[in-house]
Structure formats: structure tokens, C-alpha cells
Amino acid sequence: MKYTIKVTRTTKSRISDVDFDNIPFGRLFSDHMFIAEYINGEWVNPRIEPFAPFSINPASMGLHYGQNIFEGMKASVTQDGDPLLFRPEMHARRFNRSAARMCMPAVPEELFLEGLHQLVGMDKNWIPPREGSALYIRPFMFANDEFIGVKTAQVYKFMIITGPVGPYYARPVSLLAESQYIRAARGGVGEAKAAGNYGAAMLPSKNAQDKGYDQILWLDGRDFKFVQEVGTMNIFFVIDGVVVTPSTEDGTILRGITRDSILQLLPEMGYKVQERPLSIDEIVNAYHKGTLQECFGAGTAAVVAHVDKIAYKDLVMELPKMEDRKVGEAVKNYINGLRAGKIEDTKGWIVPVKMEATVG
Length: 360
Ligand code: COI
Description:
Structural class: alpha+beta
Strand content: 25-35%
Mean pLDDT: 96
Number of domains: 2
Number of strands: 17
Shape: globular
Low-confidence stretches: none
Bound molecules: 2-OXO-4-methylpentanoic acid
Number of helices: 8
Largest sheet: 9 strands, mixed
Radius of gyration: 21 Å
């Protein structure tokens, strides 16, 4: 191993305070965090420390100009309690694609994965055992030069924090197709997991929530015609027996790892799948013809979230009820089964957490 990770263990674990039968999403954090700094062109001082607030210079560039990216991934346990990661290399690679787009340095895959394995291994008791729950893992990087001129930063901090989570959406979600604001346009940063993509969605999301919808269904940034994604997840439709999801070639849609997994799984499960441009008009027409059978979102946090309603302009499309949501339910159960070690992993997606002794 090229990187030696210095480990400082907490002297007082907080795990006994956690009610594993009642875990909210994103509010609990496990005992340790991973940190490394990028200074003078190299990653230095990789370490695992007790999870705690840290100080930051008010002029830190990341606070001002948004060179901030993140990932979302999950660890789970088998029925025997063995900790697993789901496609960690894919997340490391996507993190570095986001970094490249935001003109930030790549985190060497070896460092990303080594930090991840050691951190999750140390906090493995924080992984909730219940199927559908998981240890959510949040790697992130931000520009940390103490300078308020606009330039590409030279100093960065890369961190990984984790925390136990239950389902992101506890019930089916309603979507409002957005006809005023956009999430991403060609040439922009839609494909990157850049913090600003999420910040820019706050106002339209709040407007949608004020109207009674959970999330936005984003349409393309030029004509408001083609469906993109939901912001917290990619989107799939079942139209006349075919599963359709928007293609990602134009760089406006996050290349979801759950999305990719579903695209590989569905044909093997006997479903016909298409990855192509999909217009909101096609969805409306299918709804009127009675061929809009299902809609579900897919993402790391959400896994698979059924959609029960989509509003577009004056039309509110109610989707078929739970017993008909067969495709979404099938892939959700498959992915959760893989993560629980109940379904054999034939694709090499499930990676056991390396439990070797950590250096300290
Ligand atoms: C994820 O699915 O991991 C995400 O990053 C989406 C959201 C929680 C921001």
C-alpha cells in the first residue's frame, strides 16, 4: 500500500445512543472520519480521526466559489454480519470524473478505496443489520485555499464521513415536471456530483413542495421537452411493457451507479430496456393511452423509489397502484438482496470490506 493512514480512535463511541430500529436519513454520524489534504500537488497526511467539527478559514475558497464535489455510497452487512461495499470502484471513478469537470485534483483510486475500507472496517458496528437500511458513506472534496480571488484552488481537503440510514423515501414519491427552472444544460455540470447542482435545485424544489409534490422531474435546459432526472435519483418509466430511462450522453444527467446496475439487471430478469431520449409528451401520451404502467427513481440513497404521481402543467398523472409496480419492486428486491448477501453476486459488484489491522 502506497498510503499509510494514521489512525486515532475515539475514546468514547456514541453507538449505544443509536436506535437501529428507527434511523432517520442523514442525521446520525458514526464514530470516525477520514481526511486527507492536497498541498503542493500531492495528497498528504491521510488519517482517520474521531468524527468531530473542524475549523475552516472564512476565506476558504470552497465556501465562496463552489469547487465542491461529493459521492454517495453504501455499506451493508450479510446475514452473518460481514460488511460489504456496493461497487466502490465505480464510485471512486465517478468522484474523479466530477473532480475533472470541476478542475479539482483526482483522488488516487488507491487512496480513496484504502481510506474507505479502513474507515468502514473501523465503524462496521454502525452498519444497520435490517435489509433496506445501510451505512451511508459520503466522500467529499472542497477547495481550501485561503484566498478570495477567483482562480482554480491549489489546496483541497478530501474527507469521508459515514452514518447509518434507513430508506431515503419511506413512501412513494410525487413529482412535478418543472417548466420554469432548469437543473442542467449541455456543456454544464449536470453529470458531475457538484454541490452547486443541489444548491441550485433548492428554490424550485421548495416551490414544488409548497404545491404538495415531493420532488422535481427535471426537463431539458433548452426546450423543457426531454426528461432528465429527479436530482436525488435517476428516473425509469415502464411504457407498454418496455422500461425506458433517459440516455446520459449529452452530459446533463448524473451517471447513476444504481441506474447502471438496473440497466444491467433488467434484461437478465426478462425485461426489455431502452436508454434513449424520452420526452414529457411521450409520457403524457402514454398516460392518456393507458400504457404508462410504472415510474420509479433509482439512486444510492433512494435505492428504488416508486413514483405515484407526476404533474405536468395542468395535468396530474396518477400512476398504477402498488400491486402493479412490478418492475421497480423486482429490481429493488434484487439490489437489497445482493446487499444483504442473500442473492449470489455474479457480477463482482459486492466487495467485502477489508478487515486487516489498521496502522496507527
Ligand atoms: C445519493 O443517492 O447518494 C445522493 O447523493 C443523492 C442525494 C442524497 C443527494
